[in-house]
Amino acid sequence: MTEEIIIAGFGGQGVLSMGQILCYSGVMQGKEVSWMPSYGPEMRGGTANCTAIISDKPISSPVLNAFDTAIVLNQPSMDKFEDSVKPGGLLIYERNGMTRKPNRTDINVWAIGAYDESLKMNNVKVFNMIVLGGFLKIKPIIELENVIKGLKKVLPERYHKLIPLNEEAIQRGMSIITQEHKA
Predict the structure, then answer these.
(1) In this model, does residue 158 exceed pLDDT 80?
(2) 3-state secondary structure the chain
(3) Is pLDDT at 144 greater than 90 in this prediction?
(4) What domains appear along the chain, each with residue ranges and CATH number?
(5) How much is the average pLDDT of 123-140?
(6) Nearest of 85, 116, 79 to residue 100 by alpha carbon
(7) pLDDT at 132
């Protein structure tokens, strides 16, 4: 099993940390991983993306041109990465703020309302964990217990009290994601 993922959105949406948590979780599960961030000079509001590769075999290169999965959290990311999903692959997009739905019919498309759900949870900082939960429902490549271990590695210890909230956010993401198109 090898899963090549691009996660893209605005800075401040937790794009980089989502990829980092996924990779740390993969390590906890004995997988080979690669995480490569890319972001503009802005602290928040600029574009940010990262590639995450999780595999049973050694990874030869972190540089990818095509992805098994694209998780896009804003319209510029949809415009940039929709065509990079391999035929038969997966595209997950955040409903909030999109001006158009994906055009491709040869990929599996799922939508999630993570921002609205994070507002219901009274904490927009769990937005990315809701999205991660949606992804793990569709592609359960990492067990939840290893995601929690990954969170403990990524989050500073002073934030470990928020791990139960993050776990709840992952569960919510699993319950609210919906399929829009099957390849």
Answers:
(1) yes
(2) CEEEEEEEEECCCCHHHHHHHHHHHHHHCCCEEEEEEEECCCCCCCEEEEEEEEECCCCCCCCCCCEEEEEECCHHHHHHHHHHEEEEEEEEEECCCCCCCCCCCCCEEEEECHHHHHHHCCCHHHHHHHHHHHHHHHCCCCCHHHHHHHHHHHCCHHHHHHHHHHHHHHHHHHHHCEEEECC
(3) yes
(4) 2-181 (3.40.920.10)
(5) 95
(6) 79
(7) 97
